[in-house]
Design goal:
The protein is an all-beta fold. The chain has one domain. The protein contains no helices and 15 strands. Strands 9-6-5-4-14 form a five-stranded antiparallel sheet, with no helix packed on it. Strand 12 and strand 13 form a beta hairpin. The radius of gyration is 19 Å and the shape is globular. The chain starts with 12 loop residues before the first strand and ends in a 10-residue tail after the last strand.
């Protein structure tokens, strides 16, 4: 999921791990978490806090495999290039065409130059929408997803290939040559101008239908499941073709099943900013 340019903005999260009592890295956070905060907390009445999961051998997490996946994770020599506090993904196919339609939402830890290097830590929230076919070039499509609605235009750079939608928006912090990432950026509600990102207000989780999530987790990324948490009640992913007046004329893709990952933190620190 790497490959990004971070807009200095942020999602609606409420607090993060400030207990950096082992300043063994440039950031002030310990090497067992790669110099990242151990947890972030969502902005909701639930007070849900999720830990950064860096164990690539844990099937309930989605951390990238380190160089030596059969050895203990250690920073920086054998640490994932990306790991997550939270992810929610939906994948379905288009009608017509049977092409992939993909939604990726995440609260992510990565490194500015991909390789784990102390001082290059980056935290951000990602929204990614990809529709890889079944579209008409230069036609607008309405994407409805749990955190809102986006209208995107299908593009076709190569006439021999199908028209596609490929949209990625990252909100967070990035280091500069003289400063490290400000992990508190993810507590800011707006970016440049009127740009906002509601990820974490709240995080999406499995709903109450069976099966229940594994103990200590908000879901299982290996099992597709219905979700809850959309602030708009749109707990689904839908792609609709629009006419020139902006009115939907047909549905291209739809699913209400998602893969979700998130490890519930056992930290007793407050979930809201003091």
């Amino acid at each position: 999921m790497t490959g990004f340019s971070v807009i200095p903005a942020i999602a609606e999260l409420a607090n993060f791990d400030r207990n950096n009592t082992s300043p063994d890295t440039v950031t002030g956070y310990p090497p067992e978490t790669g110099g990242f905060p151990r947890w972030y907390a969502e902005k909701s009445n639930r007070g849900l806090k999720l830990d950064l999961c860096v164990n690539p051998n844990n099937p309930l997490c989605l951390a990238e495999a380190p160089p030596n996946p059969n050895q203990k994770v250690s920073f920086p020599d054998n640490f994932p290039a990306e790991a997550f506090w939270w992810t929610t993904e939906a994948e379905t196919t288009t009608t017509p065409g049977g092409a992939k339609a993909l939604l990726v939402l995440a609260t992510e830890a990565a490194f500015a130059n991909e390789d784990p290097v102390d001082g290059d830590q980056v935290t951000f929230n990602r929204t990614r929408i990809r529709v890889l076919g079944g579209l008409k070039p230069n036609v607008k499509y309405r994407i409805t997803y749990p955190y809102g609605v986006k209208v995107l235009t299908a593009t076709q750079k190569d006439p021999s290939k199908p028209a596609t939608i490929n949209y990625t928006e990252d909100f967070g912090c990035a280091p500069s040559p003289i400063t490290i990432c400000d992990f508190g950026t993810l507590l800011v509600a707006k970016g440049r101008g009127t740009v906002t990102n509601p990820i974490g207000k709240p995080w999406l989780t499995w709903d109450s239908s069976l099966p229940a999530p594994p103990a200590g987790y908000i879901g299982d990324p290996n099992v597709e499941h219905k979700i809850t948490g959309s602030p708009f009640g749109t707990n689904f992913f839908r792609v609709q073709e629009l006419n020139a007046a902006g009115t939907p004329v047909r549905q291209i893709a739809f699913t209400n099943l998602f893969s979700v990952s998130g490890k519930i933190s056992t930290s007793t620190a407050p979930a809201t900013t003091p």
